[in-house]
Write a structure and sequence with these properties.
Radius of gyration of chain A: 32 Å
CATH class of one domain in chain B: Alpha Beta
Largest sheet of chain A: 4 strands, antiparallel
Strand content of chain B: 15-25%
Radius of gyration of chain B: 19 Å
Shape of chain A: rod-shaped
Distance between the termini of chain B: 31 Å
Structural class of chain B: alpha/beta
Helix content of chain A: over 70%
Bound molecules: adenosine-5'-triphosphate, magnesium ion
Order of helices and strands of chain B: HEEEHEEHEHHHEHEHEEH
Number of helices of chain B: 9
CATH topology of one domain in chain B: Rossmann fold
Oligomer: heterodimer
Structural class of chain A: alpha+beta
């Protein structure tokens, strides 16, 4: 391994030379995938949230009975729903769509106005949501349905909001994976360093007796761990990139547009490229701390 | 005549180097510490075993030269290891260069250890490093620049006759060659105190004599020297005062007066020069 710096300790000849890059490579591979997943989910959630927020449509089904009776009950329910909605803190405005406008909207599907005139019409309420207040659509839909018979909330959005919840859960999970992988890397590096220290103990003793400071010895282990970590990390990243690109390409192939394109922004890519650096930093710092703590117990 | 001049230039370089101005920047005034090492009521035991030393008292005056003798197992290596700070005594006090070291914080140990050169009984060379790197080690840990290392180490190596073996690794060296690498490593930083544990154990009498002359030469330049040895012939030939270990106690024996010290074969520096001749035999 000629790319390693000159060291007085025979660190280049122990098993860590192969073990560390391999282990860190795998860790970085996993972390990169998990992180890319978390970031992509974040992007998707953002775009879904943009759909979910803003406006909302409530539909009130026509009541049973004679046309007059139905008209009266439905109008009452409409007023009731409007009252409930306007009392919501997250609702900026709620307006019933006037019946003539509804008929006009229906015309392209139902044909001439006369024919439609007698049909019981569902009523629609346009709700404008406040940007600054989060809204639990599921909860609102439930309360609305309980209070006003026949009232339903635009169910595409409701469904989407549930999906956002799921996606956010997945994102959190991915973050936890990144964290655990970091932890696992640190633990493995500690073990590798300990065995390295045990192997090199006679040499370390000689260095001590010659007047080497702990820092000098720790630096040799740490510099090497950093370089091995970086090599392994770059390898892991290299393997992870095609996987990420493949997933991105597969998602872009889904028609229908309800799955927004799974893409990463430039900033996200930069973040992923930083992972090998982070891994190598974790390896270096962990090694240094482990070595210093071990040396502190020696005379 | 030409040869003589050559010899002189070697000698001049030796004095330049070992006379002390150049190699290491920190100038130490040896006169400051009239006593290099002092043991007061020192006791040592390993684990729960018997005490190897009981109430040892002795003093090494700065610039002195002593042999350390005693039967095998008497504790010569243990005594040296207390001096080179590889372990602390179970009780008593040890003073090095005027500083109490038994209670010293381990952060201060490296600075102390850099003033001490050690030739270990088993050499303790680092097998994966070349002769050059092994000898350079004390300089590297002290932060001496690579440029200075490249200037001084090969020179010392040719001094001890290892010019050809500069890039060889210890496992490929003969016992006597390893011994000389160990000695070169111990003296490269021109220590104030040189401790050697059986430094002539692996070499024939002729080389042993030469190595002793190297130590004598260093001693002339002010280094305090303590050499553990079994060799009666060395003790007889080089009439130096002795520290003798027996039954956990130490006795200081003055240098025997008679017979007169045999004349050294030429100047001691000549002996160093001979050592520096790679063509001549080794261990
Ligand atoms: N690390 C150790 N742990 C326990 N006992 C030890 C240890 N080192 C030395 N001893 C014991 O201390 C005593 C002195 O040993 P030491 O090595 O100092 O003797 P020595 O005079 O150098 O002998 P030699 O001439 O054979 O080298 C011996 O009885 C030995 O068994
Ligand atoms: Mg011994």
């Amino acid at each position: 391994m000629s790319w390693l710096p000159h060291v007085d300790l025979p660190v280049a000849e122990d098993g860590n030379g192969r073990f560390l890059p391999m282990m860190i490579g795998i860790m970085v591979f996993l972390a990169t995938l998990a992180m890319a997943g978390a970031l992509a989910v974040e992007n998707v959630v953002d775009s879904w949230n943009r759909d979910v927020t803003g406006t909302l449509t409530i539909q009130i089904m026509p009541a049973e009975g004679t046309p007059e009776e139905s008209e009266r009950v439905t109008s009452a329910r409409l007023e009731q729903a409007l009252g409930l909605l306007r009392a919501e803190s997250s609702v900026a405005d709620a307006q019933a769509i006037p019946v003539p406008r509804l008929r006009a909207l229906m015309e392209p599907w139902l044909g001439s106005a006369e024919l439609v005139a007698d049909l019981p019409m569902p009523r629609l309420i346009d709700v404008t949501l406040r940007e600054d207040k989060p809204i639990d659509l599921g909860d609102l839909a439930k309360r609305l349905a309980d209070a006003v018979p026949g009232a339903t909330l635009d169910d595409h959005r409701l469904w989407l909001s549930k999906l956002v919840g799921l996606a956010e859960g997945l994102g959190t999970l991915a973050r936890v994976v990144v964290l655990l992988v970091t932890l696992a890397t640190a633990v493995a590096v500690v073990q590798a360093t300990r065995s390295g220290l045990a192997t090199h103990r006679p040499a370390i003793e000689v260095l001590h007796l010659i007047g080497a400071q702990d820092d000098y010895i720790a630096r040799q282990f740490a510099t090497r761990a950093m370089l091995l970590g970086l090599a392994g990390g770059l390898l892991g990243l290299l393997l992870a990139l095609p996987a990420i690109l493949l997933v991105g390409w597969l998602s872009s192939d889904i028609e229908g547009g309800f799955v927004p394109k799974v893409t990463l922004t430039l900033a996200h890519w930069m973040l992923l490229l930083c992972l090998p650096l982070a891994a190598s930093a974790v390896a270096m710092i962990t090694t240094r701390v482990t070595v210093l703590r071990t040396l502190a117990r020696m005379l | 005549m030409g040869q003589n001049r050559d010899h002189r230039s070697v000698r001049a370089r030796f004095w330049d180097r070992w006379g002390g101005q150049i190699i290491f920047r920190k100038q130490r005034d040896r006169r400051d510490d009239a006593v290099a090492a002092r043991f007061d009521a020192v006791g040592l035991r390993y684990g729960t075993g018997p005490e190897i030393f009981t109430d040892i008292h002795f003093e090494l005056a700065a610039g002195s030269f002593h042999f350390l003798t005693g039967a095998s197992g008497a504790g010569k290596s243990s005594l040296l290891s207390l001096l080179y700070l590889a372990q602390r005594p179970t009780r008593g006090s040890i003073t090095l260069f005027g500083k109490e070291v038994t209670t010293i914080h381990r952060r201060q140990l490296p600075a102390m250890r850099r003033r001490i050169g050690v030739v270990f009984q088993d050499f303790r060379l680092l097998d994966h490093l070349s002769t050059l790197d092994n000898v350079a080690l004390p300089l590297r840990v002290a932060g001496v620049t690579e440029e200075e290392i490249r200037r001084h180490v090969p020179e010392l190596l040719s001094w001890v006759g290892l010019k050809e073996q500069m890039l060889a690794k210890p496992p490929t060296l003969s016992g006597g060659q390893k011994q000389r690498v160990a000695i070169a490593r111990a003296v490269i930083s021109r220590p104030d105190l040189l401790l050697a544990d059986e430094p002539t154990g692996n070499v024939d009498d002729r080389i042993a004599t030469r190595l002793l002359h190297l130590f004598i030469e260093l001693n002339k330049l002010g280094t305090t020297i303590l050499i553990a040895t079994h060799s009666e012939s060395l003790i007889q030939r080089f009439r130096m005062p002795r520290l003798h270990l027996e039954d956990g106690n130490i006795q200081v024996l003055d240098a025997p007066r008679t017979p007169a010290r045999p004349p050294l074969p030429g100047s001691a520096l000549n002996a160093l020069g001979a050592l520096g001749n790679p063509g001549e035999g080794d261990g």
